[in-house]
Amino acid sequence: MQVFKLCLRVLKKNIPSLLIYVVIFLAISLIMALAHTNEQEDALFSPSKSNIAFLSAEETPLVRGLKEELGKVANFVELPDDAEALQDALFFREVSYILRVPEGFSERFMNGEQVQLEKTIVPDSFSNAYLDLKIDQYLNSARLYVEQIEDLSQESLVQYLKSDLSADTPVELKTNGVKAADHVYTNYYFNYLAYSMLAVLILGTSALMLVYHDQDLQRRNACSPLSPGSFNRQFFLAILVFTGLTWFLMVIFCFLFNFKNLVNINAVFFVANSFVFAVCAAGISFLVGNMVKSESSIPAVCNVLTLGLAFISGVFVPAELLGSSVLKVASFTPTYWYVAANNRIAALASFNYASLQPVFSAMLIQAGFALAFIAIALVLGKKRRLE
Hints:
Layout: H1 2-13, H2 15-43, E1 50-56, H3 61-70, E2 74-76, H4 83-91, E3 97-101, H5 105-110, E4 118-121, H6 126-148, H7 154-165, H8 184-212, H9 215-223, H10 228-258, H11 265-291, H12 297-312, H13 324-330, H14 334-346, H15 353-386
Parallel strand pairs: 1-2, 1-3
Antiparallel strand pairs: 3-4
Helix pairs in contact: 1-10, 2-8, 3-7, 6-7, 8-10, 8-11, 8-12, 8-14, 10-11, 11-14, 11-15, 14-15
């Protein structure tokens, strides 16, 4: 196992520089995964009260009932009925919604006439849509009572509406004991693993390949009693050991930071998918190692390749935000299928063949890429040795 030991010695010599990249890449992965986790949790819907200025030219039971109903979803801010003061309040975000009830609104509404409330809002504020829904719900329900019941008083109408709108329907989401939100951190971490692991493998394998392709070393190997087949097998074994150690180190970090959410079957598929991608990344690094010809070119090739694949394949930018043409190009890369499998695994609640079939298909495609990269690397390596 002379060749295998030599490869390990070369890798050991490069451990300090590789550890720097490992630590940096792991830190980036952890920070970005945590950032996306917080964004995902913030994106979950939870009702919050908006600041609103309620200006009314009349005090009637219908107006008081509307204000009471809006109080469930809004905080009322007292402002003077002055155009400049109201504009300043909107500009400085003291309020995001100004609602004005015109004179005679209640009487005309009870007579069945079409009347409108006046509103001034902060543009593109999502909270305003919730207020609009609440106002429309109240007035549309009131309009039904007015149309169906003759001589209905405002006091009776408000009591009917108060009873109807107080009803609430509880909603319960049933899962197999694991919430989808529990996989947010794991999903993003394993997605970013595609960038960090590929970068480390390219750096380490390329350094090893430069030593392997040294002209003097090649001539000495040709004179040795060791057969080319044995030499290549030991060399590949060293690359696989390096790949396995890198993969294990990066996966174990995820368990250290998120162990409570990894004791489930989804984590098994995350780990399996990352292992398949690690083999594919070894093929890519083996191919790159056969192509680079100087130590100074390794970081440049590594950065261009890893960042390019990460940006177009959904690692840094979610696939939903990428254009169709970009995704078509990305589908010819293994990183795209790795990320697609991770996103699918994160959404799994049942584990039958129908739900797992897309995951297995993505893994097989990655394995196919790995075989293709290794085959191309062997051809290029033989050509380079002959030259």
